User: Which sequence fits this backbone?
């Protein structure tokens, strides 16, 4: 597409939108029903939602309530079984995402729609490239993207390969891609799941700015504080049915929680006391590691850490400061360049520095990875198989090289019930078919149920609803009570302060703070996150055990 054609098309589309705004609603979905597996799974049942022009409309509900499915219908990715969809007062039946884009809709999906072999610039401009004299010409695209990044505080390297970018960076690319196309109706599905506190604040400010610029926004989020902060209107779904639509002024946190889960809920907090030293189970000695996707960049500098049985060690820090690499090292996925990692098993300290993931898992270390699609599952296998995928040689599920399908099925049925995995069809459903939150429940269920004495959890509640988060926190606290060690890596400070017994802060690949939760608050963590490096000597603070 020529540059002049691109801008002429955008100007025409903008004019069309202004004409369409004569209708009261930007989006109307009436009596929409969508089922899967021949009607065995009901994702949406006679759902109704109406979104006014120039408002931030939040869509809330538990995992599997049908939120993402509903928006996928709107965006042309799914076809509803029944019901009608209107955009700007006009009945539509989008066959694909391109038709939705051309109608002024843009969507950031919970699971990224990126080409991993492309660089970030290519992904942002894919399908909307500009040409000059018949050749691709990226200069105007770069200028526009840089303007967007400067305006909303995004920092990315446009020439970085997408497969080498962090999950957080990939999320930013999805958001920039939408803004680059100039959509008038913007749909965000769990957009802040992998962003830091500062990035979330910037994102919410961005939503307010977009609203001031006349955009209409649909926000799917489990983070109720964010919903109540920016939304004008809130629609709640429960088990695929519309509970109701409410003005923000008529709803508060407790009422919203009750509408979502269908009952009042009491949150849990870690009240355990770890003043006394316990027995070490994980000991890390002076490890150094390169970035997981770039051997030329150092992620961790001379890091040492001891984790004791029964502790919940919450590791805080802004994403990209070595937390991901630390988790990969503990799980055996990426080996340290220098240093040692020891794991105490049955009273004997074992060097696991260079061991393979399967061996470490069998020794008793569970791992809930940051990227569940890359490290945590097999997308096109069943839920039942994914629930035993790292126990494939366990005699419970394997006899003389043959899988014991009855036992595997019973295990899936039990765990899907215990962890409230919706849409699993007793474990027979493909993992790919589950909502993001239910996929996360499967990974957490597998790692908590397998034999272990240590569990490393990276963003374990990412994309989960308030009820599921509370349940996962309950399970973590139970792990501690049983004497098992939990290493919780989370970019949610509230989560760490809620359930950790000890808080560690990482910055620039080093531990800059290590203290008991009883002696740590949000301000303390924030102070260390604001520091800008230096040597381990002048940044490290050891105040824990």
Assistant:
């Amino acid at each position: 597409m020529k540059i002049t054609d691109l801008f002429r098309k955008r100007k025409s589309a903008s004019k069309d939108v202004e004409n369409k705004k004569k209708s009261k609603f930007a989006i109307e979905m009436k009596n929409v029903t969508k089922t899967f597996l021949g009607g065995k799974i009901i994702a949406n049942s006679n759902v109704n939602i109406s979104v006014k022009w120039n408002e931030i409309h939040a869509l809330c509900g538990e995992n599997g309530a049908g939120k993402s499915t509903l928006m996928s219908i709107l965006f042309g990715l799914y076809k509803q079984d029944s019901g009608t969809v209107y955009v700007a007062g006009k009945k539509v039946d989008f066959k694909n995402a391109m038709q939705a884009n051309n109608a002024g809709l843009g969507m950031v999906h919970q699971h990224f729609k990126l080409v991993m072999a492309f660089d970030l610039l290519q992904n942002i401009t894919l399908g909307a490239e500009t040409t000059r004299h018949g050749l691709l010409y990226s200069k105007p695209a770069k200028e526009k993207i840089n303007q967007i990044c400067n305006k909303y505080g995004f920092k990315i390297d446009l020439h970085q390969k997408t497969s080498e970018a962090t999950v957080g960076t990939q999320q930013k690319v999805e958001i920039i891609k939408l803004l680059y196309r100039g959509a008038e109706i913007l749909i965000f599905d769990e957009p802040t799941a992998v962003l830091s506190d500062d990035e979330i604040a910037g994102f919410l400010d961005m939503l307010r700015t977009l609203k001031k610029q006349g955009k209409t926004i649909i926000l799917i989020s489990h983070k109720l504080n964010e919903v109540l902060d920016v939304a004008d209107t809130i629609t709640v779904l429960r088990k695929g049915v519309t509970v109701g639509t409410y003005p923000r002024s008529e709803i508060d946190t407790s009422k919203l929680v009750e509408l979502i889960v269908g009952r009042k809920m009491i949150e849990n907090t870690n009240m355990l006391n770890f003043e006394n030293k316990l027995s070490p189970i994980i000991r890390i000695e002076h490890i150094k590691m390169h970035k997981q996707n770039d051997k030329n960049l150092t992620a961790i500098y001379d890091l040492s850490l001891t984790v004791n049985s029964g502790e919940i060690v919450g590791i805080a820090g802004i994403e990209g400061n070595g937390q991901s690499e630390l988790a990969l090292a503990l799980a055996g996925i990426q080996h340290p360049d220098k240093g040692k990692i020891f794991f105490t098993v049955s009273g004997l300290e074992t060097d696991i520095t260079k061991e393979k993931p399967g061996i470490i898992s069998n020794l008793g270390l569970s791992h809930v990875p940051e990227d569940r699609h890359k490290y945590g599952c097999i997308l096109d296998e069943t839920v039942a198989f994914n629930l035993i995928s790292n126990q494939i040689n366990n005699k419970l599920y394997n006899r003389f090289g043959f899988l014991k399908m009855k036992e595997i099925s019973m295990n899936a049925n039990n765990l899907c019930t215990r962890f409230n995995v919706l849409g699993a069809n007793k474990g027979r459903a493909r993992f790919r078919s589950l909502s993001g939150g239910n996929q996360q429940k499967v990974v957490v269920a597998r790692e908590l149920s397998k034999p272990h004495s240590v569990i490393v959890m990276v963003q374990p509640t990412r994309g989960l609803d308030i009820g599921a988060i509370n349940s996962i926190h309950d399970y973590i606290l139970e792990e501690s009570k049983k004497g098992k060690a939990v290493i919780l890596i989370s970019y949610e400070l509230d989560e760490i302060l809620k359930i950790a017994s000890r808080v560690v802060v990482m910055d620039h690949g080093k531990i800059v703070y290590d203290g008991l939760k009883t002696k740590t608050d949000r301000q303390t963590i924030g102070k260390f996150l604001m520091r800008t490096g230096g040597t381990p000597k002048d940044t490290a603070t050891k105040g824990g055990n």
